[in-house]
């Protein structure tokens, strides 16, 4: 994935993931919609969350972003979205241009 982004001129600074699953490891602080991974990144890289944009493909992503104070949220969904807290809903990323 990083190579694909690199080939398009985008450098990824860091990748975060939650290695847990509530059915196997119990609840954790890093699994979305909890905002811990976003807050960790904000602290490590001094990210201005209010002026940041999060693109996610689930409402859990959007809820985590809002809890982390991210200013703009975009829900990427190929299906009709009846209810979301996202700032915008797009069917594909090219809609953001
Ligand atoms: Zn976790």
Which ligands appear in the coordinates?
A: zinc ion
Number of helical segments with 4 or more residues: 4
Distance between termini? 21 Å
The CATH topology assignment is Rossmann fold
Q: What's the mean pLDDT score?
A: 95
- What structural class results from the helix and strand content? alpha/beta
The biggest sheet, with number of strands, parallel, antiparallel or mixed sense and barrel status, is: 3 strands, parallel
Please give the order of strands in the largest beta sheet: 1-2-3
> What is the count of β-strands?
3
CATH superfamily annotation: HAD superfamily/HAD-like
Number of domains: 1
Low-confidence stretches: none
Describe the structure.
- The chain is an alpha/beta fold and 97 residues long.
- The protein has a single domain (2-96), classed as HAD superfamily/HAD-like (Rossmann fold, 3-Layer(aba) Sandwich), CATH 3.40.50.1000.
- The chain has 4 helices and 3 strands, in the order αααβαββ.
- It has helices at 2-7, 22-25, 36-45, 59-67, and strands at 53-56, 72-76, 88-90.
- It has a 3-stranded parallel beta sheet with strand order 1-2-3, with helices on one face.
- It starts with a helix and ends in a 7-residue tail after the last strand.
- Bound molecules: zinc ion.
- Zinc ion is lined by residues 18, 20, 28, 30-31.
């Amino acid at each position: 994935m990083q190579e694909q982004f690199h080939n398009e001129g985008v450098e990824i600074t860091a990748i975060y993931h939650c290695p847990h699953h509530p059915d196997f490891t119990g609840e954790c602080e890093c699994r979305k919609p909890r905002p811990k991974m976003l807050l960790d990144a904000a602290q490590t890289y001094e990210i201005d969350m209010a002026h940041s944009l999060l693109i996610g493909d689930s409402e859990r992503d959007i809820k985590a972003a809002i809890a982390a104070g991210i200013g703009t949220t975009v829900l990427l969904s190929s299906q009709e979205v009846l209810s979301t807290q996202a700032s915008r809903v797009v069917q594909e990323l090219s809609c953001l241009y």
